[in-house]
Write a structure and sequence with these properties.
Layout lengths: L1 H20 L21 H23 L3 H18 L5
Helix pairs in contact: 2-3
């Protein structure tokens, strides 16, 4: 009984902590026709963001495997360039 109550209390406070990092309902942005950033809400752009996220995760793992400063700088700059190229609105 006490253990069950303890886990419910832990779950309650963990939920409160997680909710502090989530956006409020009024902060969730809905796309409008006259919005300058309308492309950011498209499915195609979200797929591209997923590619960029995976690219950065892979690059970070490479940086952790080979912690040499010249290598990290070179691969970081290359990844930044590739990220901008992937997310470019003209492509």
């Amino acid at each position: 009984m006490v253990a069950s109550m303890f886990w419910k209390l832990v779950r309650f406070y963990c939920t409160i902590v997680v909710r502090t990092f989530l956006p409020q309902e009024s902060e969730i942005v809905l796309a409008k026709e006259n919005d300058d950033h309308l492309r950011r809400y498209s499915k195609r752009y979200k797929i591209k963001r997923g590619w960029v996220k995976n690219l950065w995760i892979g690059t970070s793992l490479l940086m952790l495997c080979f912690p040499l400063l010249p290598f990290m700088l070179a691969i970081g700059l290359l990844t930044s360039f590739l990220s901008f190229a992937i997310l470019d609105e003209t492509a």
